[in-house]
Design brief:
alpha/beta; Rossmann fold; 2 domains; five-stranded parallel beta sheet; three-stranded parallel beta sheet; 10 helices
């Protein structure tokens, strides 16, 4: 089975649209998302454009604040503080990566945890690892929802995550642990990555290495989630060799069209949840 992220995300957006209509009826206002974009990174510009498009599609207020790449760090931090105080803004997102002269850590920690729709603030990271309500990073949340579409009961499953980043690997592990999976996090120092993957019922690959995961790395009927987006001479490919692995796996995400659309819909969902918590 090819897991159609576009189709699943479209259905989730329809559900969000209905939720926002209900929220507007109850609270006489709708969630508001503000995105800060620094510089002109082409991938970031496309991603932000899609966020803006789908925010408006589901009926929430959306704003993009654009700054040149040489903007002073203090300007960004001051703007975040201003947005923190604005009750019309439910969620704040600063598009990563940032120019080197701007501290990613400072930026993330300046956003109020209650408006941190990316789920990167240390308070939200701690809440996730402790099993409390929090904003969950959008990409791992999207991966998790795709896995649950294929297998509702994950208890006892062995999940292997390739990549230990704060953006995906670590929060992905927390989500799967909460479902009673046995979780192995692998990385560049793992001695026998192939052997670790061959044990897995679920593989989540997010390392940025084109077609790293081969067909003989995957046991029959495994669920394979490919987070990688790699530009090659033959086009965009994932971290998984789709042609080989699709012949073995029970279900697999394509690249593009798998995880990407889910990341954006999870951002919108996080914004709605922030709005609900602020108004509860």
């Amino acid at each position: 089975m090819i897991i159609d992220g576009k189709k699943i995300a479209a259905k989730l957006r329809e559900d969000l649209k209905k939720k926002i209509i209900d929220l507007k009826s109850t609270f006489k206002s709708v969630p508001g998302l503000t995105v800060i974009l620094v510089g002109d990174d082409p991938a970031s510009k496309i991603y932000v454009k899609n966020k803006e498009k789908f925010s408006k599609e589901v009926g929430m207020n959306s704003e993009v604040l654009r700054y040149p790449k040489n903007v002073e760090e203090s300007v960004i931090l001051d703007k975040i503080i201003e947005l923190n105080k604005d009750k019309k803004i439910s969620g704040i997102l600063v598009q990563l990566p940032l120019p080197k002269h701007i501290s990613q850590k400072k930026v993330i920690e300046t956003i109020l945890p209650t408006k941190d729709v990316d789920g990167f603030h240390p308070v939200n990271v701690g809440n996730l690892s402790s099993g409390y309500d929090s904003s969950i990073p959008c990409t791992p949340l999207g991966c998790f929802l795709l896995i649950k579409k294929i297998e509702k009961n994950l208890s006892g499953k062995h999940a292997v995550i390739i990549g230990r980043s704060n953006l995906n690997g670590k929060p992905m592990a927390q989500l799967l642990l909460k479902e009673n999976c046995t979780v192995t996090i692998t990385h560049s120092k793992t001695k026998d990555l192939k052997e670790e993957c061959r044990k897995a019922d679920i593989i989540v690959a997010a390392v940025g290495k084109p077609k790293l995961v081969k067909g003989d790395w995957v046991k029959k009927n495994a669920i394979v989630i490919d987070v990688g987006i790699n530009k090659t001479e033959s086009g965009i490919v994932g971290d998984v060799d789709f042609d080989e692995v699709s012949k073995v796996a029970r279900a697999i995400t394509p690249v593009p069209g798998g995880v990407g659309p889910m990341t954006i819909v999870c951002l919108l969902n996080n914004t709605v949840e922030c709005f609900k918590r602020a108004n509860s």
